[in-house]
Every structure is written in C-alpha cells, then in structure tokens.
Amino acid sequence: MRQKNRLNNWISIRMGMVIVIFLGVSCGSMKSSTPPPAKDRLTEIDSLERLLPDCPTIASTLPLLRRLAFLYQQQSEMKVYNERLYENAMAVDSISVAYLGLKNLAEYYYDQSVRDSLEYYCSLVDSIAKARHEYPNVLFDVKSLSCQDLLWLGNYELAMSEAMDLYRLASNLDHRYGLLRCSETLGLIYQRIRRDSDAVVSFQESLDLLKDIKDVPDIMDTKVRLTSYQLESSVRTKQYASTERILGQYKALLDEQYKIYQEKNDLLSIKREYWLLYSFYTSFYLSQGDLENAKRSLDQASSYADSNWVEGDYAINTYLAVKARYHKAAGDIPLALHCINEVLETERLPEDIQFKADILKEQGLLGEVMALYDELYSTLTKRRGTSFLRQVNQLRTLHELHEKELKETELKEAGQRIARKQDLLIFILSISVVLLILLYVLFLYYRHLRSLKNQLQREKELLLESQRQLIKEKTRAEEASLMKSAFLANMSHEVRTPLNAIVGFSGLLVEPSTDEEERKEYSSIIRNNTDLMLNLVNDVLDLSRMETGDLHFDIKDHLLLVCCQMALESVRHRIPDGVKLTFSPAGEPIVVHADNLRLQQLLTNLLTNAAKFTEKGEINLSFQLEPDRKKVRIAVTDTGAGIPLEKQATIFNRFEKLDDYKPGVGLGLSICLLIAERLDGALFIDSSYTDGARFVLILSCEIDSSIYNPPIEV
Which PROSITE patterns is this protein grouped with (predicted)? Predict the structure, then answer.
C-alpha cells in the first residue's frame, strides 16, 4: 500500500532525528542526528559495543544503547538494543528513555507489519502511563501507529474503533498533541477512502494545532509530513487555488529544511521530498491539462530520482504513477502502460487499477478490463462498507462536537466576564428598561424559533428533492448499464463477424490451389469486411467526439448537388442486386452552409441504412426547395421493410436496432441526428410514407443563380 510505505519511509528516515536530552550527553559522536557513512558507522558500532560491558552503572549504558539502536535502525539489532534500552531505563526509573525505547520498538514492528508485536509494545506504553497516571505524547504516538496499521491491513472497522477511542481520550483530556495525532489519523482515514476534501480539512486542523504545541519533537519534520499528506489529497480535489497555495507552502518548508540538512551533510532524505514535490506539481498541471508545465515538473522530479530507495517506496510509486498519467496524456500509451505496471507490481490502489483498465479498454482488451473491474469493485466495496462509513461519520461528529464545546466554553467565559462588569449597572436599571429587555428577548426567541422552523422546512424540501434526484440518477445508471451491456454484446458480434471473414478468406487467398478469379473474389470480400470494421470504429469514435464537443465542423458554402452525388457514389457498391439507386435533384443550384464531409457522412449513413433493409425495388435520394425558398428538403426514400409506428419515436436512440440479425450496433442514425443538429437542421421520419421508410433532412440554403444545373441521371 502506497500510504503504508510512505509512513514506513517517514519513520525510517526520521528515527535518527529523535535525540533525547534527558542526560545532556556531550560525546560528539552521540549528538549526531545523521547516520554516518557505512565505514564510519561500522567503526562506531564496534567501539560502542566494546565500551558497553565496561559501563560502571546501568544509567551510563543508556546513551550507548540509544546510539547503537540508532546506528542499527531498520535492522534486527535495532530491536535488541531498544529492548535493552527499555529494560535498563526502567531499572533506573528513567521513564522518558523507557518511553523512547518502546516507541522505537513499536515503530520497528509497524514498519515490519508485525501486528502482534506492535500491539504488545503499545500495551506496555499504556500500562506504564496508567500506572503513573499520566498521558505522555508517546502514548498517542503508538496508539496512532496501531490504528494506522489496522487501516493499511484493511481492517477498517477495527481501525475506526481504535481511532474513536483515541479521540475520546484526547478530547476528554483536552490533550493538544493527542488531538493533533487524532486529526492526522482521521485525515489518513479520509484519504484512504478518497474523501479528500475532508482529509484536507483534517490535516489543516493538525497543522493549526501544531502551532500551539511547544513540546513536539522535530516540529519541522512533522509540519513537512502533514503538509505532504494535505497536498496529496488537495491535488485530487481539483481545487486549484488552494492546491497551488499548499504546493507553495510545501516548497517553502523543503527549502528551509534543505539549508538545515545541507549543514548536516544529509541531503538524501530532503532530495526524496523534492522528488515528491515535483511529482505533485506534475499531477497538479496534468489535472488542468497543462502538458507543457507538467513536462517541466516531471523533468525536475526525474532529476531527483534515486536508486537508493527500495522497490515499492512511496516516492517511487508516486513518481511512476504520475509519469504514467503524463505519458498517456502525451499519447505515449506503451510507456504509460509500462510505468503503471511497475506500480501495480508493488501495490494495487484503486485509482491505478482504474487507470490501467482505461488504457486496456482503449486498446480493446475487454477480458483484462473486466478482470481489473472485478478487482476494483471488490476493493471499493470493502472500503465503502456501511459500518465503516458509519464509524467515520461518528468520529467526524465527535470531532465537531469537541470543537463546538471548546467554542461554547470560550463564549461562556467571555459572557461571564461581561456579566461581571455589568452587574453594577443592572442594579441601577429601571423597571421599564428591564421590561423592555424582556420583551426584546422574547421577540428574539420568537424570531429564532420561526427561523428554525423555516430552516427545517427548507432542509426537508432539499432532502426530498435530493431523494428524487437520487432516484432519477439510479434509474439513469441502470439504463446506462443495460445500454453498456447491449453495446458490448453488439460490438463483440459486429467485430467478430468481419474478423472471421477476413481471417478465413485471407487463408484461402494464399492457398496455391486458388485461381485468379477466386483471388479477386476473396480480396473483394476481405476489403468489404475491412470497410465494415472501419465504419464500425469510425461510428463509435464520431459519436464519442460529437458528444464531448471534440469533433470539428468546417462550415462553408457547398453545392448540395455535388454533396449528394459523392454520397451516392460512396454507397453504390453496397446496393443489393435487384434494387435501383436513383437521384432526383431540384432544378435550381442550391447552396447549403455546412460541413461537406459531415453532410456526406449523414447522407451516406441514411443511404446505407436503406440498402440494409431494402431487398428489391428502389432507393431514391432527392432534394427540393421548401415553399419559403430558404430551406431545402432532402429525402432518402426506400421500398424496404419500413419502420413500425411504435418504433419511430426511438429509432434515433443509441444502440437502437430494428433487427438484431442485421449488421451494425445501432449508432448510425444517432450520429445522423447529432450531425443534423450541429448543422442547425432537423432530421425526422416521414410517417405518412408507408411503402418503406423515408428519412427527411431540413437545412437552411441559398440559391446560386450564377450556376447552371443541368438534369442529372444516375
């Protein structure tokens, strides 16, 4: 899990920064907060391990044990020295050092994902704190780790239960650091279930609490961590102004830290933060469609990429995920797929699974897409469990109630101070003034009650309206699901049929026994089926682009006669034997203001549709001026099966088919209707014609008297 890896990295990087000052040890090597180079580290470890047995007292072993635990961080020896640190500290009643050892052990097992050991050391901290009747910061540190560990393990309900218990404890004690850790944990929970707006608020509350707390160790690192969390959620909210502000704050913090770490010769961890920063910048610009700035930020992020981080590190996966999204936006689909596959090898977040599914869907790999959707559905169902969401809302309510109680207490104290100052004046007020005040209070009370009643009524109406909207949206979603299923089924059939023909006749085409006449026939069949597949794909793409407004229309003046002739020529080879294709143009040169290509596409679709359902008789394309001479009526008439009256109202709907055994997916007439609307025209069925079907297109036009238009025969 990316978030768990992120916290692991924070713990491993920052553990060395925790320096206990309880003894004020002046030994130079022990004051260092940065791990020394490998050779120096081994030398120092060897020296300290030689000194340890010669310590005259247990108390004198504590600085050595603390330093050894630090030098062995994230190794099994670290656990051994922290255990000794805890035992020796308890023996000399050095509770602060004992707490440090237990906290380090809890962080170690949190990092190693060993739940039982983490719970054990959390319980040790809790038992010591209870025995001493105190609530140190470390208690809230380890309990927060336990809660977050449950969250990454997917045990959402138990994680929320622990979070609520921890929040009640911190709230009852008004423990500011405890409230800070609770707000941070609540923010991580919101982030986990992608309630990012709430997560941004929770992390901001933690940052606000941090300003008022004086005894937070490594306050700058804590501020960087919280701002980093807040930034990750803010980028997803697409609140660009606030996200840009948080990006600036995060960069300012890193620039400030860079100076500190530069003096300590420890730039590895801060480079990692810059790596994250510019990855977030890339995501920010991508969300706005700004590929130029996104490319610049991605290049800056790449300059900080470091091979020292282990596979699955949060920074690596964040960088790769953003890189994949950039390459997809830039049109480099293979590289985008490669990057997202690297991420999915170490973690499988819903948004990354969805991203890969979208790519594979565009490539037509429906089997793999459905498998990814099954995985995505399972993950989201687990996250959005009713009980878990109810607990999230309960914790949020507790948090809001606590804030309300604090404000009420402040208001109460302020009111008491004012009341004491006014006591003297109350005694000299006249009865009339008292009566006026009472009347005024009653008036305010009445107005307040009336306002509450009106507010409740408005909220009730809003709830009823929301319920109606939800019902409508549910119905739309169900209809969309049915349409999607029908579309996939039709697409599978329509693609498979020409593919089978292409594959089969391609094999026959290369057979030595095939003569030249048969080769020509097979080539024609292959070409026809290729055209069918191309038209199918073009229909789907055109419909999608027209609905999103991405399809460009080049509107110019064109002779309608020429447009019709080109449309007729494009479908002539599709006319069945025994069917005549005729053309009846008007006698005047009519000019239409339209996109020539799209108008031909509309006419071609109507003629192709007529050819599909006409087995004998005639297909006629005609146009004539309307009586007002400002519009032209274009008609495609056939003698085919016709369209029943009950179907005429829905024939222009997407995926609507009269005959499931005819080729096509039911998009042609939908595309025709969209093109007609974009040309400011009208397309409809002439229900008065009963010998087949007649589609009528009405467009605005002009008469070009300078052009002679002789009669045309087809």
Answer: HIS_KIN, PROKAR_LIPOPROTEIN
Q: Token digits for 193?
A: 């279930």
3-state secondary structure (DSSP) of residue 103: helix
Greater pLDDT, 409 or 236: 236
Task: State the pLDDT at residue 364.
Answer: 83
Confidence (pLDDT) at 267: 63
State the first-to-last Cα distance of the chain, in angstroms, to the nearest integer: 69
CA dihedral 655, 659, 661, 667 (to 10 degrees): -20
Helix then strand then coil, % of the chain, to nearest 5: 70, 5, 20
Distances (CA, A) of 213 to 140, 236, 243, 574: 14, 30, 26, 80
Query: What are 659-681's pLDDT values in tens digits?
Result: 666 666 667 788 888 889 888 99
CATH assignment of 458-551?
Answer: 1.10.287.130
Residue 89's nearest CA partner among 72, 101, 107, 103 is 101
Q: Are 151 and 192 in contact (CB under 8 A)?
A: yes
Kindly give, in sequence order, each residue whose CB lies less than 8 Å from that of residue 290, ignoring residues fewer than 6 positions away.
none
* The pLDDT of residue 708: 44
How far is residue 143 CA from its own chain's centroid? Answer: 30
- By CB atoms closer than 10 A (0-12, 13-18, 19+), residue 579 is middle
Better-scored residue on pLDDT, 658 or 552 = 552
Give me the residue label for tokens 């208001």: 411
Instruction: Give CA angle at 495 (494, 498), nearest 5°.
Output: 90
458-551 and 556-703 share one fold: no
Confidence at residue 87, expressed as pLDDT on a 0 to 100 scale: 93
The CATH number of the structural domain formed by 556-703 is 3.30.565.10
